[in-house]
Amino acid sequence: MIKKTLLIVLMLVLVLASGLAVAQDDMMEGKGGRLVVADANSNTSLDPFISSWHSWPHYAIYPTLFSRALDMSYIGFLADAWEVSEDSKSLTINLIENASFTDGTAIDAAAIKWNLDKYRDPETGASQGADLIGLLEDVEINSDYSFTMHLASPYAPLFFVLSGLEIVSPTAYEALGPDNFGTSPVGGGPFMFKELVTDNYVLFERNPDFNWAPPELYDHPGPVFLDELQILFIGEEQTVLAALETGEVSLAGIPTQNLADAQANPDIDVDIAQLNQIRYVGFNTSKDPWTNPDLRRAFAYATDRQEFVTLAWEDLAQPLYQPLPPTIWGHNPELDAVAPSYDPDKAMAMLDELGYVDTDGDGLREDPEGNAWSVPLATASPDEWRRQAEVLEAQWRAVGIPLVIDVLEFSALIDLTTTGEHDLFLLLYGYSDPSILTYFFDPGRKGGSNRAWFSTDELTDLLTAADTQLDPVLRYEAVTEVSKYIIEASPWVYLAVPPALTGVRAELMNWEIHPDLTFLYWNAYFEVE
Amino acid sequence: MNSDRPQGLYTLVIMKFVRNRVALAGLACLLIILLAIIFAPQVTPYDPIQKDTPARNQAPSLLHPFGTDKLGRDIMSRVLYGGRVSLQVGFLSIGLAVIISAPLGLFAGFFGGFLDNVIMRVMDLILAFPGLILAIWLVSLLGANMVNVIIAIAFFSLPTYARLIRGITLSIREMEYVMAARSMGAGSARIMFYHILPGVLGPMIVVTTLGVSGAIVAGASLSFLGLGVRPPTPEWGAMLADGRNYLRTQWWIAVFPGMTITLVVLILNIIGDALRDALDPNVRA
Amino acid sequence: MSKYILRRVLIAFPLILAVTTVVFFMLRIAVPGDPAKLMAGDRATPELIEQIRKNLGLDRPLAEQYLIFLRNFAQGDLGRSVKFREPVLGVIAKAFPFTAAITFLSVSVGSAIGLLIGIITAVYQRTWIDNLGIVTAVFFYSIPTFWLGLMLILIFAVGLRILPVQGAGSWRHFVLPVATLAVGQSALIARLTRSSMIEVLSTDYVRTARAKGLAHRRVLIGHALKNTLIPVITVVGLSVGGLLGGAVITESIFGLPGVGRLAIDSISNRDYPMIQGTVILVAASFVFVNLIVDIIYAFVDPRIRYE
Predict the structure, then answer these.
(1) In A, residues 77-136, which contact B (CB 8 Å cutoff)?
(2) Which of A67, A337, A384, B25 lies at a CB distance of 3.0 to 4.6 Å from A77, suitable for a disulfide?
(3) Do residues A400 and A355 lie in contact, with contact meaning Cβ atoms separated by under 8 Å?
């Protein structure tokens, strides 16, 4: 009797299970295909402890503790629940319990601790872990799926940082070592590694076990519909465009000048957004005469951003007057009113007052001693950069500033800015959190990312205040103070926010582009037989 | 007899050249282009550097025969002014390369042995050396100016010409008439100058005339590394390269400088051929 | 002859060593740029940069770094890429066949076509055939590679949809890159052959041969062509060498994973071991190709002897 009941129960369970399996199959039915992405920028090591950024290939294979919802708020990915202590110096995280790495090992508290410890170890030299060095003091394991992070001080960008730190399989990393992990990486993301041809492409296949997609972002927990994801590293924009037109590539950036063509093409859907990036001119404020803020401000008044975006981006970019673009949280539109905007008369008056006057009547100003003046601007070599430098040269020449453009190969340009010997430089940055400003104006980063060599005690205090303020409303105010100070001091001339033009093949269904510009392919699929 | 031979030879060469109508037309064209470049400020009303926002991205028209670029600058003006830099780079760099490599190749091919080995292995070294690294180094050392561009291009062209001249020298050295001259007691210098050099000239003219266009385009690659004229100064090679991403949308940005280069090279080839024929005593006028 | 070859091969080693040594020290001393600064990214502290330098072994004295390089090189180990941590030899071994294939195919196809056109234009000297030949050759020669490549993509891949835009999966992927390179090659060879041929055709011994009543074709093939070949072979050899190291533009335009692209990318990343590896490969190819050219000289013209 008991046996019989057991048998019935067992049968019921089997039927239910197969029914569930059918439901799962139904959902996947007719969906699949290989998504081919062309991306010139992602060509970096697949080992997150070596690579300096979080890029396409990385977010395909590695999960993170947190992610961002469409409203840009932080949501759990591997984290299920979390709590910040009262003194804001510890964060306790409970993990979801069904996640595993693709080598079969569990993504548990011990695995996360291993990752965090490796990121925060200065000897790892991990650029992505740079924030945790000196900040994260200890990771304490509470139970199999719960741990607490202890910080040296409260840190507002913590969730941002944790949503970018890729979690690798410690077992696999220990076995392979830093020399081999990058060529056979093991993570626990929606895809798993299949093939890498260095400097050419990387191919991933669906992780069949993946069912821990954050529900706030995706209508089903996984696995993803796509069979494969291939990322091609091609730089030539016209080649990429042609490949998108023929369907060899399904997702790629569209060059500004080809936007109209792409929009007219029925096979291509175009998404237009603004990048979370800015272009700016930096001054080396440690070198005379750029130590003088009035001189720097005169350059800001001489810059017509509206014309700049017209000439450099066919009006698709947005003029920018402050250090944070609208695409980064913390941007305060009210600051534009107090920031220097195009006013050539004022620029000329300021230069006159500083002693830079045109004494020989050639239309270009001489320096205060009456000697020939020349203002070197270092820029990178791609034609887009050269054109931007040419626009600046023309605008500044109009008020008598004799700009001399030095075209440098990119590595040489970066190297130059760490020497402190440079003058002006045209560069960009891209990020998603206002704490980026700390990297650019930290006294300890001169010779590193503080390329303007600019810092004051006051600014350092303001930056610290902003980075340690966890309350969003108060942090916003603190970031506004930082921006206001930087605008006033003018170590940079802010130029523009470039456009993000993405072309997607019409055959690809159900895709979405996140406000932070990541491409949400988890629900995306091609219709297959 | 011997003393008036050179004059007779030159007269003959000039007469043969003048009778070649195509070559004369080419020469006239080249002169017109050169004059237009020299008198660019009189030929075109537009400034090659000054931006003109409302006029940007215009297709060729009566007002702007070659159209305007991204900054609204007249492309014809930029082509004319750019010719000043590009032609100097093209001619001077190849000229310099030929002047240095000709004796190297001649000596290597003629004398052979140890000298040949030393010269040609040094040439191998230059050939095998990554030009890009050298260029980046030169920029950091010398900065950007035209003289450095000329030196860099000449340097990398050396092995090509040296090897070519050596190869031809090798084969002419063994020819019967050279053997004959030698057996009649002609000295090495005489043989090299009177017998081998003329034989080398024909293929050299072809390779150098094509080399000039190569040098103009190479100037563009160097300008991308910072070893070149600074923007916004116009230069053909850089205009050509900058325009490549606009071939589908604003084709005129790259096509006109490109066509100018082609035209100049074509003319140079025609003149070069005529010159070669004129110098060849076997070709009748 | 075999002694000559052996000597040339032996000379090759010091040459390659000389090139790599110069590159080694130039990169570290004279050329601005530092892989650690690039890898540290936008969060770079001087300490982080120093740590990365240390992890890469770049903090050691130059002499020590050089000795380590020499020791590994002697054992056939070119080290690991700074950026990807992958063994340099493996990456280059994967990339080289693509470059070798397009180089070999484009030079042979281009030279064959060029020779044919060169001979025809020389024989029909100063006729409309000749003029057409010159203009066409010069026109194609002066079309920049990136234009031609892009035009071919637009016509054959985007327009007619008969060939792929990019990649390296099948023979179809090689058609456009090879065509792009072959066009310039054939133009150069055609002009050179024509000039050289005219030179030879007008020399005494060809006239003698003709006067002796040898058939026109026999004279062309037997006497003239043989002597025409010397400069042509030199230039073919140079272009093989040049392409092996420099098919960069073609490889970038067609997304071919070859050595040229690898070399450029590694230079922009200051990936020292990878740069070193490509330099060694390119130097070795030059030496090899030049050796072959010199040997061919001797075959084409047996009067050229090598002591």
Answers:
(1) none
(2) A67
(3) no
Mean pLDDT computed over A67-88: 92
pLDDT tens track for A440-457 = 999 999 988 999 999 999
Q: Which of A301-305, B265-269, C169-173 has the lowest mean pLDDT?
A: B265-269
Assigned domain for B160 exists: yes
Side-chain-facing half-sphere of C23: CA atoms under 13 Å: 29
Chains that touch A (3 or more CB pairs under 8 A): B, C
- Does the pLDDT value for residue B1 go beyond 70? no
CB-CB under 8 Å, A307 with B71: no
Contact C299, A236 (CB under 8 A): no
Cβ within 8 Å, pair B128-C188: no
A340 pLDDT higher than 90? yes
What is the least distance, in Å, from the CA of A221 to any CA of chain C? 33
Contact C11, A95 (CB under 8 A): no
Closest approach of C239 to chain A, Cα-based (Å): 24
Output A206 or B133, whichever has higher pLDDT: A206
CA distance C289 to chain B (A): 10
Strand partners, A82: A93
Q: What residues of A are in contact with residue B252 (Cβ under 8 Å)?
A: none
Contact B248 A390 (CB under 8 A): no
Assess if residue B104 is contained within a domain: yes
| CA of B258 vs chain A CAs: smallest distance (Å) | 17
Joined together, the tokens standing for residue B210 give 């094509």
- Per-chain mean pLDDT for chain A: 90
Task: Quote the number of domains for chain B.
Answer: 1
Mean pLDDT of A191-198: 92
Residues from chain B that touch C301, judged by Cβ atoms under 8 A, are 170-171, 174
Q: Do A412 and B139 touch (CB under 8 A)?
A: yes
Report yes or no on B5 lying in a domain: no
Return the CATH architecture of domain C88-300: Orthogonal Bundle (1.10)
In this complex, the residue of A257, A310, A391 whose CB is nearest that of residue B246 is A257
* A393 alpha-carbon distance from chain centroid: 29
Per residue in B203-252, pLDDT tens? Answer: 788 778 878 877 887 776 676 666 677 888 898 888 888 888 888 889 99
Q: A266-288 b/e with 16+ CB inside 10 Å = b?
A: eebbbeeebbbbbbbbbbbbbee
With CA atoms as reference, report the closest residue to B200 among A282, C115, C231. Answer: C231
On whether the CB atoms of residues A78 and A95 are closer than 8 A, the answer is yes
Which residues, at least 6 apart from C190, have a Cβ–Cβ distance to it below 8 Å?
C113, C114, C115, C117, C118, C121, C133, C137
Q: Domain coordinates of chain C in residue numbers?
A: 88-300
pLDDT at B224: 60
Q: Are B227 and B138 in contact (CB under 8 A)?
A: yes
Question: Is residue B176 predicted with pLDDT exceeding 90?
Answer: no
User: What is the rounded CA–CA span in Å between residue B168 and residue B197?
Assistant: 9
Residues with Cβ within 8 Å of B100's Cβ and at least 6 positions away in sequence, in order, are B154, B158
**CA A507 – CA A248 distance, rounded (Å):** 12
> Within A377-520, where are the H helices?
383-398, 410-417, 436-440, 457-468, 472-489
Q: What is the mean pLDDT of chain C?
A: 84
Q: Which residues of chain B are within 8 Å of residue A237 when distances are taken between CB atoms?
A: 245
Which CATH number characterizes residue B112's domain? Answer: 1.10.3720.10
Closest partner residue to C142 (CB to CB) among B244, B247, B265 is B265
Which domain does B28 fall in, by range?
13-42+70-279
Segment A266-272 mean pLDDT: 95
pLDDT the model gives residue C307: 45
Is B50 within the bounds of a domain? Answer: no
Nearest to A41 by CA among A57, A28, A65, A27: A57
pLDDT mean over C238-256? 79
